[in-house]
């Protein structure tokens, strides 16, 4: 349980960094919302992202392992972008405001999120 909570926290920070860097191309919550509402929205999106990444992610990566090997790991960028877009669709079904401007911005966002997660894990000292 402690590992899940730390992964959830790291995902929340990484999503905030990605939303900040990508500006209008990745939005979490509305600009007119209160600070508390924005924090809750980020935590809900991070929870969805953490669940998608930990449940769906390993299955997709296992099924596409030959393709990942052939592309020398570049297929992981596509998989992570698709997981982010799946997170967007799930969040939308719960009326949680989370938006990424298409596939290529999802690829950029997944790179930023991966780098951010690595940095935050190093600073916080969690091991994923």
TrEMBL record:
Signal peptide residues are: none
Tell me the domain of life. Bacteria
Give the residue spans that cross the bilayer: 35-56, 63-83, 103-124
Q: Which residues form a coiled coil?
A: none
One Pfam family from the UniProt entry? Phage_holin_4_2
**InterPro entries in the cross-refs:** Phage_holin_4_2
Q: Which UniProt keywords apply?
A: Membrane, Transmembrane, Transmembrane helix
Q: What is this protein called?
A: Phage holin family protein
